[in-house]
Design goal:
heterodimer; A: Jelly Rolls; four-stranded antiparallel sheet; B: alpha/beta; Glutaredoxin; five-stranded mixed sheet; 37% helix
Chain lengths: 593, 215
Amino acid sequence: MPHGACGPIKRCGTGLSLWAVIAAFIIVPTLHAVTFSADIAPIVYHYCAPCHRPGESGPFSLLTYTDVKKHARQIADVTQRRYMPPWLPDPGPFQDQLRLTDDQIRIFAEWAAAGAPEGDPTETPAPPKFTEGWQLGPPDLILNTDKAFTVPASGPDVYWNFIFSANVAARKWVRAIEIRPGNARVIHHANLYVDYARSARQNGDGFPGMDPVIERSIYEPDDGHFLYWKPGGIPYSEPDGFAWRLDPATDLVLNAHMLPSGKPEQVRPQIGLYFTDHPQTRFPMLIELEHDGALNIPAGDRDFLVSDDFKLPMDVQILAIYPHAHYLGHLLEAYATLPTGERRPLIRIRDWDRNWEAVYRYRDPLFFPKGTVVSMRFHYDNSSANIRNPNNPPKRVHAGNTANDEMGHLWLQVLPDGPRDRRVELEQALLEHWLAKYPHDYAAHLHLGAIHLAKLDPGAAASDLEAAVRAEPLNPEGHNLLGSAFLALGRGPDAILQFREAIKLRPDYQNARYNLARALIKSGQFDEATTLFRQVVAAFPNDAMARNSLGELLFHAGKYQEALEQFNRAIALDSSLEIAKKNREVTLQELHK
Amino acid sequence: MSNLLRTNCAGAAHWISRFTLAKCLGGGSLLDVKFFLVLLAAAMLPAATVDLAGHTRDPFGAPAAARVFIFVRSDCPVTNRYAPELEHLFQEFSARSVEFWLVYPDPSETPATIKKHMLDYGFPGQPLRDPQHDLVKRAHADTAPEAAVFDSKNDLVYHGRIDDLWASPGRARPMPTTHDLEDAIAAVVDGRAPRQAETRAVGCSLADVAPDPGK
């Protein structure tokens, strides 16, 4: 409307515009009465039906007019509260954002108020077709649980860890997994962890716990993928090059969060694995922001803050984000601050609800340059006003694994820039950050020491490994690695001391024995080394490398016939041991002289 | 307002929805009075609650120290999670001449689905269908699950939640801190009035399964 269209009386112009606006609000909603056929069906099919259909997690179906009419007011209520569809974060650049617009919520309200009219059934769109059974088609390998877990009829949430034996005969590259919960109405959410060391099964073939501890080898920076199940989702297929490694003798641990339904329920999950021939060529990593050590929430505190800030050591793309807390969390947020000072939000959850914990993938990866600081700010309410407080009356809460403790972890799936595998670089930065928070942490010092050793920097390694040994003097691994650092620095006697200590602490520590023999050889103590290796071979007669090492020592002592015997035995045990074959050749030559 | 109307309004308070009562008390025309009288007459007929064999069944027929009605929907997860607690209350009170009734107001629930529902979850009580929502109205219930307790004189003395486990849809406490239904039944059995006559129940809507007005 041009200014002054009504001549000198400007009021005329503004008045007409105002009326247009008012009319739009009044007339538009009532011009067209909301019906199931025209308005409700499309929304329900997209946002509700994936869970609200037979066999899925919704407690009732929402596929037909009859279905939806029976829940019309309920739907109006739960959508207005934004309880349904379940979507915790503020709107953001996420894939599959299950969030209704204000307009869609208004449509549900109008429909219920109007008595839930059907409209013209011939105009109703057909309900969506869903794939029955495995959503991605028949898996290449299906893993089953040996026994079902029974959720009792009543009581609080239940957390159970199912262990699956991933019985592949050779290394496989996994491009997708599908978790079929076995009882989708009872499982709220489940995370899957790859247990390369098979450490979890020490607890039995299943065990309770909200956050299972999976041992990680310091030599394998794997664990770069979020593997999970959440209601209604289509399982995720990794893009080409992002498949993850699955080796023989690996376990998968399914951590399931379940809720009693009013009757005892059997839960028997299955996992479907989908393989690809394309090995992993892109190496994302899961990084964790946390400060559990500072998590110490007094009873009654309504706003306790847990923070962490980590500076990215290289350009990265962030692919996905996973905020994790227990029951006291209320405002959870994360953001990135660029080197320019500009702040970008990563996620913001204003009203945390543990029941709807989820991994959120970004529609497009978020790029951040080196020097960007990623930050977590988790706020906790440990007062009685927080109805979800597991303690009544509230009590002081620390970090821990059970429902009465608390946690605060902000996980990011991060892909370092460039074609190479840069996980070790990123891991090093993370360990240094960890040690800034926890200066006496054994595992971090050990891990950082191992990285320095691998980078051929024994000086730096020794410094970290000495700290590791100080932190846990009874842990043989620290002594063994420290010995290796000393050996590389040419400090023979110090190295020998450390290796002996490692063997004393763990008599079957083969790696420490080899190292000790090497150290003895280097300082000319061949007899002692030979004795040591005779002990090893006696204790482990099928260890090919041990026999090879003994053979080398015997060769050095001029005992060629005995040496040959050992090399032959070594090759018989392991025909791929090239060093033993070479040694045999050289020994045969000596014997023929 | 005429004397007749005043007397009938008092009756309305007992039998008929608050809407009608308000209309009645608002006073007005002869048309209002007729409308009201018709409703009153209808309300004085026995409630059209039906047992699973299809016979009309009046749950207020036999004498009892207290009558507990639980309004349920078999497709309501909030309701189902209460089955163990209801069983517990049944064990606690049924020997003290307290009747338990499980009321299904959804006209589309069949005797077969009801039987299966009760068997699956172990719900206690005598099942009753209430397709016309007569009992729903009498008990001022609007949610599944909602409890209504009547005393030995068939007066409504409590209606509302079973406990405070649910603060609102989707927001549950780890454990309830009140046991409103248990307290109400205990009060009635002891000859006292419950501390609260009504509380807000959280769950699934009964209005969503109300009979069509045309029927």
